[in-house]
Amino acid sequence: MDHSQTQGMDHSQMEGMDHGSMQMQGGSAPADARDPHAYSDGITLEEGPYALPGPRQLRLADEHAFYGVLVDRLERVDNGEGHALTYDTRAWFGYDYDKAVLKAEGDIEQGRLAEASTELLWSHALTTFWNSELGVRYDTGHGPDQSWLALGVAGLAPYWFELDATAYLGDDGQTALAVEGEYELLLTQRLVLQPRAELTAYGKDDAERGQGRGLFELVAGARLRYEISRQFAPYVGWEWATALGNSADQVREEGEATQQTRWVAGVRFWF
Predict the structure, then answer these.
(1) pLDDT confidence of 111, banded at 50, 70, 90?
(2) What is the homologous superfamily of the domain 62-270 according to CATH?
(3) DSSP assignment, residue 81?
């Protein structure tokens, strides 16, 4: 807009102007416009007075490889009839967009590994808060060992809910689905309440492995931890588990309870 047109006008006169007569910025740049790439004065990462010899020194964050290990649950579980040691860990190595992820969880009873599940996945960033996961899983423990192909998504849902949903294709055409969700409620800067729920389902009956078609098991509970540091926190908690559908029928036939209440105590740490 030519500002000389508005000199001497009061505010009401300016409001009454025909905005169609204003010359708005747009179209091609003027011939004397400065090159937007010229602000560096010809200095680049490889040339100029500040360039360092040898390979490029400056690298952006998404060009670096990162790694980490999180032991989310390492706890003693007491269900009133006995106790066990449970672990749930994950480790990762890679870049912002692509990384290798190792997940491992299981139960140790009477000094022996009673049940275990291990996954090796390739994680790829889909959006800012969500990753896709593709890989394999291997289960040992109840019945014959079992291998799976895994495909899922994991990320942070609105209102800060952490969700993990994975579909599996296993031996003899067996299929499975596991959905896990949790939330961290900060009671203070160090005291954190973490509700958690996990639901599993199978595509067909497998009595040898104790898998019933349809919904299999629901586990829900909460853990209260105190973060001595951000990387180390002891906790106590309570958990309720129930068998569902055909799996509940199999449990009843074996003369066992379909529901369990568990008290847990453990530590959470990462590095």
Answers:
(1) confident
(2) monomeric porin ompg (2.40.160.40)
(3) S
